[in-house]
Amino acid sequence: MTRKETDERFMRLALSLGRRGMGNCWPNPAVGCVLTQGDVIVGRGWTQPGGRPHAEPTALAQAGRAAAGATAYVTLEPCAHFGKTPPCADALISAGVARMVIAATDTDPRVAGQGIARLRDAGIEVLTGVCEAEALQDLKGFFLRLAEGRPMLTLKLASSFDGKIATASGESQWITGPAARHHVHGLRHSHDAVMVGGGTARADDPSLTVRGFGVVRQPVRVVVSRRLSMPLGGNLWNTAKDVPVWLCHGPDVSEEVAEAWQAQGAELIECHLEGGGISVAGVMQALGAKGLTRVFCEGGGSLAASLLAADMVDDLVGYTAGLAIGSEGQPSLGPLGLGALSEAPRFDLVEHRRIGPDLLHRWRRRA
């Protein structure tokens, strides 16, 4: 195996470790680190829940004295600033690491090449750009928040073959099978927050929690509703003190309703209006300002259409079931107001496979 092949092999392992932190470490990036002596792994680490310890000190602690002279594979440039923990670049230097392989450089102005410079100044060999495309994809939400002030957004649509999410009477449980629903819970777990519109909160009374994965850190539950017209006493209401509930509302919400939700433990986020409804771009900016890097939207149709129209959707995940509901059913998307096909948002297919009796298809924003 060539050195290039070895570097890519260990970096892909570091990337897989970093994904374990997704949804658990915001606003910090989910980073992975592997330490090796030759072909032997002596330390592994990833960003821990809450964002610390970082991946590098976790791997160094596992390696102990074996870190001296080792090669470190890290998915993001080590930090070079003092935050709540000392710089990871300094920890790597102190441990005596001889070589660094880095997937992506950090665009955070507190780092932005300074970590690499500090490592090189200490005499450490540094190689960058190994598996960079995969790292940039995994860390997309972190970079988007730095560049645009918003988290990345995954939009999930589970529908019948003809694109319906419910019958005309509103019956929707269950269009897709258990395997697809379990997969959705896994995606919830890998995101910082799960978001729905007020209509979905009213119709489905969802919990929006991760279930079927043991005891895990739950995502923030976000509801976008101009006037907070959701049922008091529902699942979100009853669990707001246990799992965070953030309510994005307009400036014209009733003071009585707002105070009731706040007393129940929910956090209210006022967003400006645009075109008669809440600005979804404003919602995304507000969520980014609060530290979120990855948001998983589960509808409904109006919110999904608004996000697509505002060019806020980065990934699309579809679950299509083998049944037809007909034109009287409720569509998965609300009106987009398109005048021509050229105006339609387009995505590139990155994955498709059978999941139980259903079809999973995953799409990515077209560059």
TrEMBL record:
Pfam families: dCMP_cyt_deam_1, RibD_C. Zn(2+) binds at H54, C79, C88. InterPro entries: APOBEC/CMP_deaminase_Zn-bd, CMP_dCMP_dom, Cytidine_deaminase-like, DHFR-like_dom_sf, Eubact_RibD, RibD_C, RibDG_C, Riboflavin_Biosynth_HTPR. It catalyses: 2,5-diamino-6-hydroxy-4-(5-phosphoribosylamino)-pyrimidine + H2O + H(+) = 5-amino-6-(5-phospho-D-ribosylamino)uracil + NH4(+); 5-amino-6-(5-phospho-D-ribitylamino)uracil + NADP(+) = 5-amino-6-(5-phospho-D-ribosylamino)uracil + NADPH + H(+). One of its GO terms (biological process) is riboflavin biosynthetic process. One of its GO terms (molecular function) is zinc ion binding. This is Riboflavin biosynthesis protein RibD. It comes from Donghicola tyrosinivorans.
